[in-house]
Structure formats: C-alpha cells, structure tokens
Write a structure and sequence with these properties.
Elements: H1 2-8, H2 11-30, E1 38-43, H3 48-61, E2 66-69, H4 84-96, E3 101-105, H5 108-112, E4 121-126, H6 134-137, H7 140-148, E5 156-160, E6 170-174, E7 180-181, H8 182-185, H9 194-210, H10 214-222, E8 232-234, E9 241-245, H11 250-261, E10 269-273, H12 282-294, E11 297-300, H13 309-322, E12 331-333, H14 337-348, E13 354-358, E14 365-367, E15 373-375, H15 378-387
Parallel strand pairs: 1-3, 1-4, 2-3, 4-5, 5-6, 6-7, 9-13, 10-11, 10-13, 11-12
Antiparallel strand pairs: 8-9, 14-15
Helix pairs in contact: 2-4, 3-9, 3-10, 9-10, 11-12, 12-13, 14-15
Length: 388
C-alpha cells in the first residue's frame, strides 16, 4: 500500500500532508522538549556519524551532560534519523534526566520530510555535500538544498570550507583553508584519512562556538577511537591488512581508497564494492570507476541488492571498465558476498596487500531479494574466514 501511495502522490504532498502533521503531533505530545536543550545537528554526505560521535565525546570529556542519536550508537534505531515520535521521545528523555546538550545526526531525507520539525537547533554542522540519494532528491541541487535546511534559524553554522553559504555566524573548516584548518591546528588522530581530519576539524569548530578550551578539545579529539565499521582493521596472521568500511558513496569510496593507499608499502590494494538496489542508480558507474582507478583489483558483490543484483553489477562493471579494469584479470564479479570476501582474503591477496571491504560497515542485516532482511555482519564473516 505504501508503495502504491508513493507511486501516485508527489513526494512533497506526502511530506506536507503526512510527515509534517506527524512531526507536529509528536512535538505536542512530548511538549517541545528541545526548547530546553542546546541541540547540535550534524549532516553531510559522508562523515556525519563520525563527527556526531566526536562531538558527543568532546562534550562528555568537557564534563557536559549530553545525549546523542547517530547511526551506530543508538540501539534500536535502524535508520540514521528515526521517526519524529522517537526523536521527540528521545529529546524528552534527555531533558528529563537533566542533559544540557543533545547531538543529532541528521539526513537529507529527514530534513525534507520534516522529521526534525520543532527541534531547536543551536548549531548546524555540514561536513560535506557530494553525490548521493539522487533516487529520492532527483537533482544534486535539490539534495544540496535539503541539507541546507538544517541551517535555517540556527545560531551558528559550522561548514566545510568548500560549501558556499552566506549568512551571519558562520565558522568554516578545511584541511588547508577555513577558520579552523589543519595547517594551524596540526591534529594527530588515532584514526586514518584526510576525511577524518576534516571531521575532527568540524568538531574543533563546534568546540570553539561552545567556548570549550581549545587545548582540552584538541586532546579529546586526538584520543577519539575508531567506530565499528568505519575503517575498522581486522588483525590477522596472514601478513595482509584488512579493513571494513561503510563507504557507500562515490566520495566516501574515493577518500577511503586514498587512505588505504597510505598503508601500502609494496603490496596491492584490493577493493570489494557493491551498490544498493532501488537507490541512486547514477552512483553505480561512478563507484565502479573510482574502484577501477584507485584499486589494483576490484571485486563486485552484493550490498543490499533488493533483487536488482544483475543490473547493479552491470552498471558498476561499466564504470570499472572505463577506468581500465579488465574482467577476470583485475576485475571480478562474485554475487555471494561471503564468497567474495573469502576470495579476496584467501585467493587474491598476498603478503603485504591491503583489502578494503566496503558498503556494509557496521550494519547487521542485508536485503538480497527486496523482501526480507537477513542477518549479516562483515566483521563476523571476515573472522569466520580467517579462523577457517
């Protein structure tokens, strides 16, 4: 029935006559709890989960009382931005237990669908805006505008230096440029990648807005440990490096592969990728091209194909071939994800190689046929293979 309604009605009608009334009702039911909290909202194509967790840890280390909703660290939430009734209940619980701060990971879908209507955001953070979710937003401009909705009425905006947005009270961050930049602060993180340095700089910018001592903030950020499924290394005795990462966007994959290159001395980079069914089709060719260009070997496999695996794989292959990859030489297609991971670890890799397993990260289920979710864990499968 939901699919039928969505096929008939434009999304804006559903947003205004279904999602918005739900959000209003949720606020009334729970008494607009965010009005009593200092709320920090964090969005972006990539990096929002890590940044949300960094900001949360920063506030805790600074002795602040704080709650958080993010993809990984909120048990029971199966989407990044939950239903407005769950959001408002969570905010009320935070208020009732005496929290001062609430840190929220926010998606473009949630902003477009008014799921955070009534939440008083004090600080809005945008980590970056690159290609993603065009199946829903249709155009990149619409996607960008959905992200920018977070900044409406915020007291302070914390933005990646490459995002153009004119308003008062903006603080920018970036590797080389921005009000908060790596050239100035020289952060030394426990977690790899320039993209994580950007996440850390965004967090440092938030600390500046909140008036937290910069020395204390820098120490907290530099002590931040990796999250489950985010460039998570699986130690082994095979002489190879294995990383599980959630990278599922073109920019995310590009940044992750560039980061993994830094772990190579004389070995090869093996990239295992896939794309979701009934989601942004345009990115599939892009993902194949990025892996084909930056990886020495590409293995294409399942990532929630929802019954569209053959079509998805053909599109990824097209991109990989354009980047110079050759089927059965440095490009392989293995539909079964467990077999694909086993092939990467046991057959293809040699001592000194790096294996990047992308697309699922922390997720605990996978949708193969478009009907049912099956239990899944990349980490469990890798450990099973290593112990087999």
């Amino acid at each position: 029935m939901k699919s039928l309604i969505r096929s008939i009605l434009p999304q804006w009608v559903i947003n205004y006559f279904w999602h918005l009334p739900k959000a209003i009702l949720a606020n009334i039911l729970y008494g607009f709890p965010s009005l009593s909290l200092k709320v920090i909202g964090i969005t972006g194509t990539d990096g929002k989960t890590t940044t949300t967790n960094m900001v949360y840890q920063l506030l805790r280390d600074a002795g602040k009382s704080v709650s958080m909703i993010s993809t990984i660290d909120s048990p029971g939430f199966h989407v990044t931005s939950p239903d407005p009734f769950i959001i408002q209940k969570f905010a009320k619980d935070a208020k009732d237990k005496g929290d001062e701060y609430l840190v929220l990971e926010v998606t473009s879908h949630a902003l477009d669908q008014f799921r955070f209507w009534g939440i008083k955001f004090d600080i809005g953070v945008i980590t970056n805006i690159t290609h993603e979710h065009l199946d829903y937003h249709q155009t990149f401009e619409s996607y960008k505008n959905a992200k920018l909705k977070l900044l409406k009425n915020v007291k302070f905006a914390v933005l990646n230096n490459n995002i153009s947005y004119v308003r008062r009270n903006v603080i920018t961050f970036g590797i080389r440029q921005g009000d908060v930049n790596q050239e100035k602060f020289k952060l030394k993180l426990k977690i790899p990648g320039d993209y994580n340095i950007e996440n850390a700089l965004a967090t440092l910018a938030v600390s500046s807005v909140l008036g937290i001592d910069q020395g204390r903030a820098k120490k907290s950020i530099e002590n931040f440990n990796n999250l489950s499924g985010r460039m998570e290394e699986v130690k082994n005795s095979k002489g190879i490096k294995i990383f599980i990462d959630f990278a599922h966007t073109p920019n995310g994959l590009k940044q992750s592969l560039k980061s993994l290159r830094s772990h190579l001395k004389s070995g090869r980079l093996i990239s295992l990728i896939g794309c979701e069914g009934f989601r942004d089709e345009q990115k599939r060719v892009m993902m194949g091209g990025i892996s084909g260009k930056l990886g020495d070997y590409t293995i294409i496999t399942s990532v929630d194909p929802r019954g569209q695996l053959e079509t998805i794989n053909k599109q990824i292959i097209t991109g990989a071939k354009k980047a110079g990859a050759i089927v059965d030489q440095n490009l392989f297609v293995i539909d079964d994800r467990e077999k694909a991971i086993a092939f990467a670890i046991n057959k293809l890799s040699k001592k000194g190689d790096v294996v990047g397993i992308f697309g699922k990260g922390h997720e605990s289920s996978m949708n193969l046929d478009g009907k049912a979710e099956i239990p899944w864990s990349d980490l469990a499968i890798v450990q099973k293979i290593l112990n087999g």
